[in-house]
Amino acid sequence: MKRRAQPWLGTLVDITIADALEDDALNACFNVAFARIAEIHQLMSFHDPASDVSRINAALPGTSIEVHLHTCEVLRTALDMKAASDGLFDIGCAGQLVEWGYLPPVHRGAARYRSGQSVLELEAGQRVRKTDASLIDLGGIAKGYAVDQAVAALK
Questions:
Q1: 113: alpha, beta or left? (left if phi > 0; alpha if psi -120 to 50)
Q2: What is the DSSP string of 112-138?
Q3: Model-level pTM?
Q4: Which range of residues forms the domain containing residue 23?
Q5: CB of 10 within 8 A of CB of 138?
Q6: CATH number of the domain that residue 65 is part of
Q7: For the chain, how many structural domains are there in total?
């Protein structure tokens, strides 16, 4: 077994691959997997001002934003999870996480977290409409999605 680890998505991503492959092929597998995880990180990072998440957070209510297909898929799943959990899973809780010090205060003027408040809605295509000044954070779902994408890239 060969292992590699890199810091992504606010954690240390550790990948283990059976070493039945030649070193060059094994390294190529690690590169493919980490590249996919890096892509998800760049799209869904709360900290990166160029990420889809930061662009959504910076948008005024009523603004429609085009996002990457990966971000759209994660947002759709997150909204479904919120509905299925009666609001217990809520990506709109980022303001509370900032208040508690778990996330940095990078977005000024954000509304305080209000349980049950809808922060965004999905539109046609890959567009998202911001419906509230609250912040979103995909940390509770993006990590699992990134792992799924890395595994899919290796198949």
A1: beta
A2: PP-TT---EEE-STTEEEE-SS-----
A3: 0.89
A4: 2-154
A5: no
A6: 3.10.520.10
A7: 1
